[in-house]
Design goal:
Elements: H1 8-11, H2 13-23, H3 28-47, H4 62-72, H5 87-97, H6 100-124, H7 129-145, H8 150-160, H9 175-195, H10 204-211, H11 242-249, E1 263-269, H12 284-287, H13 291-300, H14 311-314, H15 317-325, E2 326-331, E3 342-347, E4 352-357, H16 370-381, H17 396-404
Parallel strand pairs: 1-2
Antiparallel strand pairs: 1-3, 3-4
Helix pairs in contact: 2-6, 2-8, 3-4, 3-6, 3-16, 3-17, 4-5, 4-9, 5-6, 5-7, 5-9, 6-7, 7-8, 7-9, 8-9, 11-13, 13-15
Amino acid sequence: MSHGEMTPTRSGAAHALACWAAALDPGAEELALADRSLVDTVAVGLAAHREPVIGITADLPEEARWAFACHILDFDDLHMPSTSHISTVCVPVALALGGGARTYLAGAGVMARLGIALGWPHYSAGWHATTTCGALGAAAGAAVALGLDAGGIARAMALAVPAAGGVQRSFGTDGKPLQVGFATHAGVRAARLAAAGASADPRAVDDWLALLGGSPDRLTIDGPTVPGGLAVKLHPCCYALQRPIGAAATLRPAVPDPAAIRRIVVRTPRATVQPLIHHRPDTGLQAKFSLEYAVSAALLDEHVGFAAFTDDAVHRPPVRRLVDLVETELTDGGDHLLAGEVAVEAHTDTEVHRAALAYPPGSPQHPPLDGAFAGKVADCLAGLPVTAADIAWDRAADLLRAHLGV
């Protein structure tokens, strides 16, 4: 969808994006994406009611608590071109302000475009793009929900710049979803301040882009609302693990007795393991960012779901044995989490079983089958008096309040 011929380098990034967001008139395909993102994100957020850690967010603002809940399981969708979790930020903003699908899409489009302008070097340097881009995306979406014009949206984005941080060292701890919650709230706060008349220089966004290694020259305004689409996760862990799990799972029928495995080799481009910082995890949270654990669990478990990412699951003797057998061979290059392909080998005393995968199920190139998506939602809502049909823009906020105690 085209929204004009705005040239970011002449008008400034914030002004160009604000004009785009103010003029956004989503079509049927974009509204369908928003509806799927709502169901996916809210279902994952509701599943977090089982997490005792939810209680630590009691004093946070509503949108921050929801963003935390929707991200704590690391089961929310991902925008591959920006390497950011768009919906865990933009859905809570839309729900908290009653903005609906257009609010979500405006925030998502701004967040995606800023992430693309920052590029892979930003993520590979250790920044958490969900929070750096998320604060400004949340501000844009919230400003649209509050009815601000393009000038107000640009000021809101500029006011969110001081909160646009977050690093990958927090991965595997509560700090990761908390910094997402902080960014989401910062965007809403910035939009409310802009609505109240706070002044700001929108060119602060250009300076922010440059300081974080990005460039307004890489900012594209035309094209789909969410360029490249969104990847749906089918396993509750980092997106960088979806592909290795998919490849390793295909080997399970060939090696029905994991005790027979003597060696496991994983070959993949170096870029694809950027966020996988825990090699011998001790907790379920750390396991969500462990290549060695994910491959081992996929060789052991029929389904790598919620049960695979508990502290007890991580300490199972069979999985600990396999984790110690995993060798990684990283090739140079790659500029995103699905660069090249992943190859997994399981060696026994007599055979070597191999599998390779380029795109995991759930990626835009390999969209999830309706049954797989429905199964994910059902797993998330198990034990709750809620179905996917109950999740709609006019009811989702009440569902989250009721089940997360906001």
